[in-house]
Amino acid sequence: MSADELRALLRAETVTHVPGVYDPITAALAVRAGHRAVHLSGAAVSALMLGQPDLGFVHATQIADRANTLVPALRGVPLLADADTGYGNPAYAVWTALAYVRAGISGLHLQDQAGPERSGHLAGTEVIDAGLAAAKVKALAAEVPEIAVIARTDAYGVNGLDEAIRRCRLFAGAGADAVLPEGVDTPGELAKIHAALPGVPIVVNRSEAGGNRPSLTDADLAEVGVRLVLHPMAALLAALRAASLTYRAIADTGSAAGVDRMPWAAFTDLVGPDDALDPDARYVPGRLET
Question: Is 260 exposed, middle or buried (0-12, 13-18, 19+ CB in 10 A)?
Answer without folding.
Answer: exposed
